[in-house]
Request: fold
Amino acid sequence: VQLQASGGGLVQVGGSLRLSCAASRRTASNNATGWFRQAPGKERELVASVSWSGGSTVYADNVQGRFTISRAKAESTVYLQMNSLNPEDTAVYYCAVSRFSYPSRALIDYPYWGQGTQVTVSS
Reply:
């Protein structure tokens, strides 16, 4: 089980970043993939999740309309395009693969986790 998250960095308020999550084919071929984040002193929370087909997504209310999750199946990669970033988006972002084919919000549904990538939004 291998997940590689990348694309984090330092960006100014209003800027954009694109995160990538590359998964081994065996890990993610029929499973939903989600992005989560954890800010200092806070619990880990769902940001967005996409079904194995790419046709179904869920988003956290506070990123809806600003973030877009997508899947490139041929590359076994899931992307998180983040626009209009604000300081509240500062966190370590993790990608995770679900035990199910459909996207869900519960962390317990995601047994496979990659390492985090830091996103820092400066004001």
